[in-house]
Structure formats: structure tokens, C-alpha cells
Write a structure and sequence with these properties.
By secondary structure, the chain is an alpha+beta fold. Helix content is 36%, strand content 20%. Strand 4 (125-126) and strand 5 form a beta hairpin.
Length: 177
């Protein structure tokens, strides 16, 4: 992502960018929550020194690439089928007013939202049966870093609720984009 795009997103225009994504009729919005396996990895010969970087890397370059590959086998078209792939937030030991900060063994996970071109959205989700594509589900389950995941279409009426849940009222400087 270019520095200009990073500054644009981390400015106070974050909600405006999200609303623009939601209102674009050419896209279907999807949400994702991906929890990583960390217990097994702590016992490996190469310990992970920065879980935040490891978690976000695996979401961006492994999980999201599986989604992109299901949408288009041609890597050159991945930016067209998912035009914005950097709208995600890493979480670990995240507390709120109603939920205290969890114990030290809470999972490292990512909450995300991404738009998919409307004409190819049915390649990753069967809207009739309300299920993720079986091939994509199998591919993501095969990743040794993923513990659990949920990818589903975002209902327009829940768009702002999801954004509030995902960001948990963090300021722009606290966001990981």
C-alpha cells in the first residue's frame, strides 16, 4: 500500500471511506474473523517474536490470498476482484466497558471487512444455502496457522455495527492498516 493511501485511511476519513465502500453498487461486502493457532507455534524451534506482525502477515498473505485465488486464478486480477484488502484490525487482549481484558491465553485474531466484485462474489459464497464455498473453506482449514475463521457477507443494515465492533472506537493512530 502506498504511503498516500495509508495517510488517507489513517486520517479522520476512516468512516467516510467505509461508507463509500458500503455504498458502491459494484461490490459485495464481506466480513472475516480469523483466529490464529499460537500454542503449537510457541513450542517450535523458531519462536515468533512479534505475534502482531505474524498474525497480520498470515491474514494478509495466506488467508486473504486463498480468497483471492478462489475469485480469480490469475494473480494479475486479484486487485480487481478485491480492490481494497487492507481494512482489518488485529486484536489480542482487547477489553471494553462490558467485557474485561481477557486472560493471557486469549487468541490472536483479526477482524476484517473487504469488498468483492459483485459478479464474482458467488465464487466464494453460496447465497442460496448461506454457506462459504466448500473449496475455499477446505483451503483455509488446510493452513497450519488458522485455528478458526468466519467469512460471510455483510448485511447493509449491520455495516456500522460491524465497523464499531471491529474498531472498538480506536483512534486513527491506534489502527493497524
Amino acid at each position: 500500500m502506498s504511503e498516500f493511501n495509508r495517510q488517507l485511511i489513517t486520517s479522520n476519513n476512516l468512516r467516510l471511506t467505509y461508507e463509500w465502500m458500503m455504498q458502491n453498487p459494484e461490490w459485495r461486502m464481506f466480513t472475516a474473523t480469523v483466529t490464529m493457532k499460537t500454542k503449537r507455534l510457541q513450542d517450535t524451534k523458531q519462536p515468533i517474536t512479534n505475534m502482531r506482525d505474524w498474525t497480520t502477515y498470515n491474514y494478509k498473505h495466506r488467508v486473504l490470498n486463498k480468497v483471492k485465488k478462489q475469485l480469480s486464478r490469475a494473480r494479475s486480477k486479484w486487485n480487481k476482484v478485491i480492490p481494497i484488502d487492507y481494512f482489518f484490525q488485529y486484536e489480542y487482549e482487547q477489553g471494553s466497558y462490558f467485557k474485561p481484558v481477557p486472560r493471557g491465553d486469549s487468541p490472536h485474531h483479526v477482524h476484517a471487512v473487504f469488498p468483492v466484485r459483485l459478479e464474482v462474489a458467488d465464487r466464494i459464497f453460496d447465497f442460496n444455502s448461506n454457506q462459504l464455498n466448500q473449496r475455499l473453506e477446505k483451503d483455509i482449514r488446510s493452513l497450519d496457522c488458522v485455528s478458526s475463521f468466519l467469512i460471510q457477507p455483510l448485511r447493509c443494515e449491520d455495516g456500522h455495527k460491524w465497523l464499531g465492533y471491529m474498531l472498538k472506537d480506536k483512534s486513527a493512530c491506534d489502527l493497524i492498516l
